[in-house]
Design brief:
This protein has about 110 residues and is an all-alpha fold. The chain contains five helices and no strands. Helix 3 packs across helix 4. InterPro entries: DUF6532. This is DUF6532 domain-containing protein.
């Protein structure tokens, strides 16, 4: 369970997007804990797939929106598909324009979740 206090000191570093500690924690919790797909199929998660990062960002946005609004947000495709596309396009742009950085970021994240 995410703790709202984790977000109190959150900042966004434009030079290091998608590197906040909570992203790693969510990926571990969802895909690399216990019987997660990352444990069962490690080759599919090598380098952490960019669509997975887009999904995690959407989940974070949903959670933060719920915390700020003091209620639970329905995390569904109809609610967050536009946000997912936004993050997927942003990650694709980073991949195309900063390939070395993007590969390094996903490899570093992969090593961190193991």
């Amino acid at each position: 369970m995410l703790i709202p206090s984790l977000f109190q000191a959150c900042t966004f570093d434009k030079q290091q997007p998608f590197r906040h500690l909570i992203i790693k924690d969510l990926i571990i919790s969802q895909w690399f804990g216990g019987k997660g797909e990352g444990v069962k199929y490690p080759e599919a998660f090598k380098g952490i797939p960019l669509p997975l990062l887009a999904l995690v960002e959407c989940a974070l946005r949903s959670y933060i929106s719920g915390v700020k609004a003091s209620w639970t947000i329905n995390f569904s495709g109809s609610e967050f598909s536009i946000r997912y596309i936004f993050y997927a396009q942003k990650l694709d742009h980073l991949r195309k324009n900063s390939l070395t950085w993007c590969k390094g970021m996903t490899k570093e994240l992969y090593r961190a979740v193991w």
